[in-house]
Amino acid sequence: MVVISSFLVIIYIQITKRKIETLSDQIRNQSKTKSEEIEVLLHELTERQREVYNLILSGKTNKEIMSELFI
Description:
The protein is mostly helical. The protein contains three helices and no strands.
């Protein structure tokens, strides 16, 4: 009984490992696609829009962005 239980646990672990690897691959592939799409969109932004975008990414609040860009 212990041998069978151990065998089933090993099979479960292997199946889980394969599922995790498959999901990781899917996430990596989607990330690459999304990253390429984002790069295309960022390229279309004006210089001023890129400034605002970078300030948002840096965690600035709306008031901080307004004062920094003199809006």
